[in-house]
Specification:
By secondary structure, the chain is of the alpha+beta class. The chain has one domain: Trefoil (Trefoil (Acidic Fibroblast Growth Factor, subunit A)). Helix content is about 15%, strand content about 45%. It contains 2 helices and 13 strands; from the N terminus they run H-E-E-E-H-E-E-E-E-E-E-E-E-E-E.
Length: about 190
């Protein structure tokens, strides 16, 4: 009877897939992105430092965080808003927000003096996003063999990824161009 059982299992999976598949297309007639789920995570870099947002100083940087600071969690517990997508190959579209002093801030990118800057602005992430948006990043696995770590590509400038750069003692969150077929450890982010 084992063969029969596995055939049934396969059947069940096919049906499940079918269901999602239909749902998926019913809801997605436009290119709008609709929020699907929210993950609550800290963002760590390759040095196991945590991304901390300090809106008062207008800075976001990876820092060594003590367990105690982690408990209070100011500016380091992110909500990662995942959106449905019609183009899964580009990566999962996500937006980031973070709570600091009872206010919510969302991550976006802005052009300033010819370069694109990562900013955190007060406000909520929208439930739906029409087509293009400067708050959307594509979440991709960091390398094919490393499924636990990710890199985040800015949706409006392909090839530009969230990364950190050392500025004095700060490891500041920036957008950085990834040269083709290279691996850049500063873009490696673990959730």
């Amino acid at each position: 009877g084992r063969v029969k059982m596995s055939a049934e299992e396969i059947l069940v999976h096919a049906v499940e897939l079918g269901k999602n598949f239909c749902l998926y297309f019913d809801e997605l007639e436009c290119d709008a992105l609709c929020k699907e789920k929210i993950l609550h995570r800290v963002l760590r870099n390759v040095n196991s430092q945590l991304l901390v947002v300090r809106p008062d100083l207008n800075v976001a940087a990876f820092e060594d965080v003590t367990d105690q600071e982690m408990q209070s969690g100011k500016g380091m517990h992110f909500s990662i808003h995942c959106y449905k997508t019609t183009t899964p190959l580009a990566g999962m579209p996500v937006a980031f927000s973070v709570q600091v002093e009872n206010k919510s801030y969302y991550m976006c990118c802005e052009r300033e003096c010819g370069e694109t800057i990562v900013r955190f602005k007060e406000g909520e992430v929208p439930k739906e996003i029409p087509g293009e948006s400067n708050i959307i990043f594509f979440k991709k696995t960091f390398t094919s063999c490393c499924s636990k770590a990710f890199k985040f590509e800015y949706s409006m400038e392909r090839g530009m990824f969230l990364a950190f750069e050392e500025e004095g003692y700060l490891r500041k969150l920036i957008l950085k161009k990834l040269p083709k077929d290279e691996v850049d450890e500063t873009m490696k982010i673990s959730l």
